[in-house]
Amino acid sequence: MAQTGSFDVIVAGGGPSGAAMAWSLAVRGIKVAVIERSEFPREKVCGDFVEPAGLRIIDRMGCSDRLDLSSRTAISKVRAYYGPHIAYHNDVAYYQGEAGMPPHGHVIPRHDLDAALLENARAAGATIFYGSTVKQVRREGGTMHVSVKDKAGTIELTAPVVVGADGVQSVVAAHAGLRRDDKRHIGISQRVYLEGVELDEDEACIWFDDDHYPGYGWIFPIGDGRANAGMGMLSETTERFGISLQQCFRESIDRLKYRHPGCKNVRMATKPLGGAVHMYGGITRNHFAGGILVGDAGGFVDPMTAEGITQGMESSIIGARTIVAALEKGRFEEADFARFEDDFRAYFDHSMLYLSFYATMMRNRHFGDFFLSMTKQGFERAQHDREFARISGTGFGGLNVQPAAIAAQLWSGIGRHIATGGVAAIADLVAGRGLPRDGFVGDWNLWQRGWRASVQSDRAWHMSWLEDIVRAVTKLGPSFTQNENPRLQGPFAMEDDR
To answer: Which domain holds residue 288?
Structure first.
């Protein structure tokens, strides 16, 4: 190891959240160390897609040129499959180029992204320990002691503050008694790189099938006939129903070869790799005596899409202010880090609690046919109703989630759906044709069938699911009491306002 001893802050983990934290502290002149177990560049299971809000942060950190973003293909369109049916094929309507964000995303392989962000932190003054593993964290006399092992042996670093940015198996979270293991809020995934892809390079593809509900698959083009392809599902679902995500993924790739015209000649260029994420709905507390948790270690992942690169960086930029305040005061007890909880809740709760509510409802696999039908209809409406696509589409990955506006659109659509379906049903009955099997009546039948199957399969689990929905509803206050989603202006706006 190149350097040992004492620091102001030790960051465990050198991914995007750890690098953003180290950069945020180092540019303030704070002595910070980052412990990263891998030698960079390294692979990471991820979709590699960075949305406009993430690109805004990367630019603010001064990494756009380092990543050569101007030469990377801008992703501004998406194709959505439901089984063999294309429900949506159009631009991403909610990429508006607002609040300093570009009107597109970029696919940036993690071996490029993570290396550039961490090197940027090093250039700002952070000390990076590559190929080093955090083995133990303990607190003695108000000082955090971090045992670190590399090829040369084991040393101990000390600091008053430790930041856990070390992912789902966080050693720092385990030290604080805050490691998450609730499978209701854990997503698991498979990812592979494909070659022989013939996609429009500005177009992503997502797909939904009943065999991997609740979850979805993706293809993000990298260029030169290559793409990142993957699939994510809920850990709880795969365990309860004995589902093999690996098998579902292989079968979905095979189906894409004849569903998607650009995938007929695809072949796997790498072996599929698996990963996991902790989603926002499972957060309990992210601060403790001597530090905080950020990124995936803290559960800062979108509960609908499982996207976490941007959220991880946002959590670090927000958390850095709490750390700076603690260092200035020289106090590092649990209460001194509670500000982080207030700050990230004020920033994220508006959108994340609303998305968590929908994710909770959709957790029940027995209602898969119903929810797949409803979301498919939503994509189909978005195809021709651009205002609906711009507002309600944010539930599938947009930054500016506006719960009140989305709810108004959805309930208006449901009202029209019921009215139209009711009139059609009455007309069919009067004409002696019986009740129709599609439209509103068909959706109602899907709901009833799901309800019966859920109760018959496991009544106790069904009741616990309903209780989870009620709890999610009780948390929706922040989603409807703010006029603007705080995430729209970004985490630096919070800093600039203080």
So the answer is: 9-72+96-180+280-355
pLDDT tens, position by position, 141-185: 999 999 999 988 999 999 999 999 999 999 999 999 998 889 999
Strands (E), 46-132: 49-50, 74-75, 77-82, 85-91, 105-107, 127-129
Q: Residues 85-114: pLDDT tens digits?
A: 999 999 999 999 999 999 999 999 999 999
Verify that 33 and 104 share a domain, yes or no. yes
Are 359 and 182 spatial neighbours (Cβ–Cβ below 8 Å)? no
Residue 1, classed as helix, strand or coil, is coil
Domain's final residue, options 234, 258, 275? 275
pLDDT at 44: 84
Cβ 33 vs Cβ 310: under 8 Å: no
User: Which amino acid is it at 496?
Assistant: D
Question: Do 157 and 60 lie in a common domain?
Answer: yes
* Distance of alpha carbon 128 from alpha carbon 143, whole angstroms: 20
pLDDT of residue 270 exceeding 90, the answer is yes
What does the alpha-carbon distance between residue 335 and residue 319 come to, in Å, rounded to a whole number?
A: 14
pLDDT higher than 60, residue 334: yes
CB 120 within 8 A of CB 19: yes
Mark whether 42 and 187 lie in a shared domain.
Answer: no
State the Cα–Cα distance between residues 95 and 58, nearest whole angstrom: 17
Residues 453 and 369 in one domain: yes
212 and 166 in one domain? Answer: no
**Cβ–Cβ < 8 Å for 5, 157:** yes
- Asked if 255 and 382 count as a contact pair (C-beta separation under 8 A), the reply is no
Question: What residues pair up with 195 in beta bridges, in sequence order?
Answer: 226, 267
As a dihedral over the C-alpha atoms of residue 30, residue 35, residue 38, residue 44, rounded to 10 degrees, the angle is -70
Please tell me whether the peptide bond between 214 and the residue prior to it is cis, using omega within 30 degrees of 0.
Answer: yes
Picking from 294, 323, 355, the residue at the C-terminal end of a domain is 355
Number of domains in the chain: 3
* Interior angle at CA 440, CA 411 and CA 216, nearest 5: 75
Which pTM value belongs to this model?
A: 0.92
